[in-house]
Q: What sequence folds into this?
C-alpha cells in the first residue's frame, strides 16, 4: 500500500492522532480511515463508524514521509518540520470527540481501487 498506519498516538486525549508513513508517491484521495465499532457483546458491528476520506492531493515520499491525522484538533492542512527534521503533513478530522478511547479500538486504512457513485434525483 502507498501509505501505512504506524500507530495511534495519545489515544483518548484531545491531541489524539494517527501517524502514517508514506511508502511511495501517491494521491491521498484514494484512501479512507475508519474505526471499528462493537456491539454490546464485544463483537465487531456494522454500527456507523467514524469515516475520514483523505483530501485529493499528491504526496511525495521523499518530500513528506509522514502524515499526522488529528482527530479533534481543528488544524488547517499544513506541512510541519518535526524536531527530528522530518517533514510531516498535518491533517485534521475535526471531530468533537476522540475515537480511540477503549482498549482494543482499531483504526482501519482502506485504499479505494475502483469507485462508483450515483446521485439522487427527483
A:
Amino acid at each position: 500500500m502507498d501509505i501505512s498506519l504506524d500507530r495511534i498516538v495519545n489515544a483518548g486525549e484531545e491531541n489524539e492522532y494517527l501517524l502514517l508513513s508514506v511508502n511511495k508517491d501517491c494521491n491521498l484521495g484514494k484512501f479512507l480511515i475508519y474505526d471499528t465499532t462493537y456491539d454490546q457483546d464485544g463483537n465487531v458491528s456494522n454500527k456507523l463508524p467514524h469515516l475520514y476520506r483523505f483530501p485529493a492531493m499528491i504526496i511525495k515520499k521523499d518530500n513528506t514521509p509522514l502524515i499526522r491525522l488529528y482527530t479533534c484538533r481543528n488544524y488547517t492542512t499544513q506541512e510541519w518540520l518535526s524536531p527530528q527534521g522530518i517533514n510531516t503533513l498535518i491533517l485534521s478530522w475535526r471531530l468533537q470527540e476522540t475515537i480511540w478511547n477503549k482498549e482494543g479500538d482499531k483504526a482501519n486504512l482502506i485504499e479505494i481501487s475502483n469507485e462508483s457513485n450515483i446521485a439522487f434525483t427527483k
The longest strand covers residues 3-9. Residues 79 and 89 are 5 Å apart (CA to CA).
